[in-house]
Amino acid sequence: MIAFGYRECGSEGEPRVVHVEQEVDYRITVLAPDFVSFIQALRPESDYDYG
């Protein structure tokens, strides 16, 4: 699942955007340092070549 990670910033700071791998011992991978960075990094599907 994708979630906000408050572990380092607490309830008053800017949370990271993280991916939690529930099937692999709840491994956490940071996707972006904040929500704005996460949104700015999103790209349309047309940017990818699947062929």
Largest sheet: 3 strands, antiparallel
The residue ranges in which pLDDT falls below 50 over 5 or more consecutive positions are: none
Radius of gyration: 13 Å
What class do helices, strands and sheet pairing give? alpha+beta
Number of strands: 3
DSSP helical segment count: 1
What's the arrangement of strands in the largest beta sheet?
1-2-3
Overall 3D form? flat
Percentage beta strand: 25-35%
What's the end-to-end separation, in Å? 27 Å
Helix share bin: 10-25%
Domain count: 1
Give the rounded overall mean pLDDT: 93
- Helix and strand pattern: EEEH
Write the layout of secondary structure elements.
Blueprint: E1 2-5, E2 16-21, E3 27-32, H1 35-41
Antiparallel strand pairs: 1-2, 2-3
Describe the overall structure.
The protein is an alpha+beta fold. It has one domain (2-43). 14% of the residues lie in helices and 31% in strands. It contains 1 helix and 3 strands. It has a 3-stranded antiparallel beta sheet. Strand 2 and strand 3 (27-32) form a beta hairpin. It is flat.
